[in-house]
Amino acid sequence: MTTLPLSQHALEALAREAMHDRIVGCLFGSALGDAIGLYTEFLSGDTARLAYLSQKFTLCPRSEATPFRRDAHRDPNVPGEWTDDTDHAMCILLSYLHKDGKEMDPRDFASRLHIWVRMGLRALDTLPLGLGRTVGAIVRSKTYLDDPEGTARTHWRNSNCKIAPNGSIMRTHPLGLMCIHKSLDETFQIAADYSVVTHVDPRCIISCAIGTALIRGLVRQEIYNEEHIDDIVSKAIAWYSTYRLRQIEKDASCKDEPELDLEELNRHVKVSDISELELDDMYKIGYTYKTFGSGVYLLRLAMRALAAPEGRLSTQRTIFERLITDLIMQGGDADTNACFAGALLGAYLGYKVLPPHWRDGLVHGEWLMKKSEGLSVLLGVSQGSYSGVQDKDTAPDGGRGWLTESQIEEKVMLLQADMVKRAQERDQQEGIDRRRRAKRASWLGGFGGRR
What we know:
It contains 17 helices and no strands. The protein is mainly α. The protein has 2 domains: about 20-405, ADP-ribosylation/Crystallin J1 (ADP-ribosylglycohydrolase fold); about 405-450. The chain starts with 7 loop residues before the first helix and ends with a helix.
C-alpha cells in the first residue's frame, strides 16, 4: 500500500497541535511540580524520606490523595493545591491575557503582585499563602508601585548585594510561552524586565533569561538536545554583557554592583549529580541557582532518557513523575525547584504524557486549562476565539471586587476553622485505621495459634 505524503496544510496543523500540547504541558507541568513539591518543602532529604516512605504520590482520585506530613507549613493546604510560585506565574499570565496578548507590561504585573501580597489571587479567591520575605519586604514598600525596580534595587543594595533568592525564576515560565514569536534577544530582555520588578541580582536575572529562553525554544522544538541547552547559556551570557553596559549607562551607580560570576553559573548549569546542589542546605535553600541548576539538570536527564534507543514511548509516559519525585525527595525549597523543573519538562514532553493521577487531581486544573487554551488562541497556535478583556478572571480584581481588611480577616478565620475541621477528620480516620489494623493483627494471630 502506498502512503501518500502529508500536505503542507496537514503538516502545519500537526506542528500547531504539537506546540499547543507543549504550551499546556508547560503550564500544567509547572503547577504540578509546585503542588507535588509542597509535600517536602522545607524538609531535609532524610526527613522527607521518613515522612513519605513509599516515595509515591497521588492527587487523584481526591479521596485517595496522598496526605501531607502534618505540620504548620502544610496544614493550610489540601493535596493538589499549588502555592505562591504558581500564583505569581498566574499574575503574569492574567496580565497578558487581559491585554489580549498585545502587550507585555512588567508594571502591570508589579501592580498585580501588590494586590496578591495583600489579598491573594482574586480570580480564584485564594489567600497569599507562602509569601516570601524578599517579595513581601519589597512589594509592601511605599515606593513600590511608583518605582518597582528602584525599590527592589534599594532593598538589594541594603543587603550588600548578596541576596539572590529564587522568587523570580519560579514565575518566569509563562514569559517563555509569550515569547515564542519573539527573537532570542527580545526574550532575554523581557525576562530581565520581569525579574527586576522584585529581583535585581545578576544571578536572578541570568537565571530568568536562560529559563525563559529554554521554554521558548522547547515549545518551538528548537531545543531537543543538551548542546542546544549549552548554546542558549552561551548566548545569554553574551547578551548579559550588553545588558549590563546599558544598565550602567542608565544608572552610573550600577558600575559598583557585583559582576556575574561565570564560573559559578557554569558549575550549576553542568552538575553531574543532583546531590552536588545540596538542595536541603537550610542556609541556602532559596538560592536561585539551586532552583535553576536542578531544573536544567532534570531537563538534561529527560533528554538523555528519550535519546536512548530502548523504550522511548514508555519512558516518555513515566519520566515526568519519576524525575519530579526524585527531585522533591531531596527536600529543601522543593515546590519552587519542582515548579521550574516541571515547566521545562512540561514544555519538552507536552501535556498528554503528564501523569493522570497528578494532572487530574490539580485543584484548579479546569480553570488553568481554560487559561492555557486562551493563551494558545492569542498566540495564534490554536484556532477558536478568546477575549481576555471579556474574561472577568483576567481583571486585576479577578472580577470579584476588592476585599476590605475585615473581609481578609474573615477569610483567614475561615481557613483556620477549616484546618481544625480537617485535622479532626484526619484524627478520626487514623483512629479507625489503627483499630482495623489491630483487629486484623489479632485475627491473624489467633488463626496462627489454632494452626
